[in-house]
Fold this protein.
Amino acid sequence: MRIGELAVATGTTVRALRHYEQAGLLTSERAANGYRWFAPDAVTRVANIRLFLDAGLTADDVRVFLPCLDGDVLAQGPSAGFLRIARARLDVIDRRIAAQTAVRDRLAEALRTAQSAS
């Protein structure tokens, strides 16, 4: 199927599919006319890529799971690799939230101080 057909079939965008391909998560063949051609099982692969990305993993994180992206990843249960990567990603997110909360608190305090002075 062509890239536009794959986008419709997976509810994603052509741009996202090109990004997945550039990131090494998805492969295509080139037809004689230069169009990308994806195998039918690409629908499952894209669904699994989206599943991992929606869970907060990065494209680099997802690349670790290339061997299982063409199957039913939910039926397999979480692997030790997934749990390790998910915990690491959660730690990064928690640190970012803490940093943003600290910035927010400083800004709120600055506003309170400025309002009190006026």
About this structure: The chain has a mean pLDDT of 92. Residues 80-117 form the longest helix (38 residues). The helical segments are 3-10, 14-22, 42-54, 59-63, 73-76, 80-117. The longest strand covers residues 29-30.
